[in-house]
Amino acid sequence: MPSWISRATANHNAQLVTTAVVSGVVVGSVILGLQKAKRMYRVADLKASIPELDEDHHATRLTQFGAASDAFPISKEDEKSMALAARARKGDYDDDLILEQLARNRVFLTDDGLAKLRDAFVIVVGCGGVGSHATAALARSGVSKLRLIDFDQVTLSSLNRHAVATLADVGTPKVHCIRRRLEQITPWTHFECRNELFGEASAPTQLAPMNGQAPTFVIDAIDNIDSKVALLYYCSKNNIPVISSMGAGCKSDPTRIFVGDISTSTDDPLSKSTRRRLRALGVKDGIPVIFSTERPGPGKAQLLPLAEEEFTKGDVGELGVLPDFRVRILPVLGTMPAIFGLAVANHVILEITGYPHDYLPSKARDKMYDGILGALQGAEERLARSMGFESQGLKIPLTQDDVGYLVEEVYHGRSIISGLSTRLVLSRWNKPGEDFIDKRTPGQKNSLLQMKDLVLMTKEEATKHEKEILKGDKRPEDLYDQKVLELVRKKMDEEEKFERFR
């Protein structure tokens, strides 16, 4: 290399070329340096032009949780807690200290049970009054992996029932509020916060494994019927253990709260709608729920109606934050969501650890449904013969589950005529037309019977109804009073609306 340089510089032309190259490099470096310096000066000038946020300035900083820092500043304790939690999740926390904190649970559940709990991955969907208390109880009891899903923020009205929210949390996502507060209690817990609305389309992602671990349990603390049904249906079909909290609104009697199968839940509008929608989807039992059997009465709280002036403004649906979410105020006694949430967490803890427990048995009425289905088959064959059709091989398009749905969810196990609950059968209400049998498939005869055509009666009532209306010349208006006719019409209209969920 030195010999090449000496030869190049010995030639006059080469010297000129080398000088030009070196000069170009130097000039280019100087230009780039000046440009960089100018950019640095401009940035410095821009930063200097931004005024400091003092008491006289109208602007304000936002914390990482979206709250105004001058109104709700992050305290030194919060900062220390966050730093400790970050280290604890990486393993920088003495396991003996954790076991000491969980000592009472440890002696109750045994070492094996506590180990299962500490290894569990639980998803909580809905982080309001019920969900926050359930989450707090699970974290305090040792569950170390929690995924929180909720689209909403903490409001002032949340503070009467939320487990951990304070004034400093108003305006922040509920999932982050819970994480921030519980990190001060169980810093080793891994929280995964999803500030999202749960829905049918997003269920596979939102209920997906965490670091390869499938959910040990899912908690449904949602108060929107569509999201609730979507969650429970997905868990049921994918064999994910789940427990659902039904309505705590307008309830006040803690002695009426039960843990039972969804098929046994009563006296709760949210439970009724959820159960009926799930049964229409083919899920009739197998989901534990928390529900209250307390009934409304004189002087008790009720769902508050919208003010009359709101209806005059136009579509009341526009008042909701999201489509299908209620816009009326639901009265809630602050203690009741807490009891529901703790009952949910208690059940989850017992299930995960294998601690002995029982809940109300489901309604085992399959034999009764089979009997009603057989009686309906016989009634359709008799009706076909009376109208001049060959009844042998006639098929009806209903199943045992369809019968159970009509008996339990539509007619609540009682005759539409007398209200009796024994010796029940399903019967057509109106006499069908001549085309009530489908013969389009060679060698096959199908009844065109639909669920909305049927009502529940006692056997004696059905015999009279068949003789005088289905085979005779009378109409229902000739046989029953206006009260029964109106009740049947209401039930049939109701079932037609629910048909779209099938």
TrEMBL record:
Sorted alphabetically, which SUPFAM superfamilies does this protein's record hold? Answer: Activating enzymes of the ubiquitin-like proteins (SSF69572)
Membrane topology designation: Multi-pass membrane protein
Q: Which GO terms describe its cellular component?
A: mitochondrial outer membrane
GO molecular-function term, one example from the UniProt record? tRNA threonylcarbamoyladenosine dehydratase
* Localization (cell): Mitochondrion outer membrane
Alphabetical keyword list: ATP-binding, Ligase, Membrane, Mitochondrion, Mitochondrion outer membrane, Nucleotide-binding, Transmembrane, Transmembrane helix
Similarity section: Belongs to the HesA/MoeB/ThiF family.
**What is the official name of this protein in its record?**
THIF-type NAD/FAD binding fold domain-containing protein
Instruction: Supply the source organism for this entry.
Output: Periconia macrospinosa
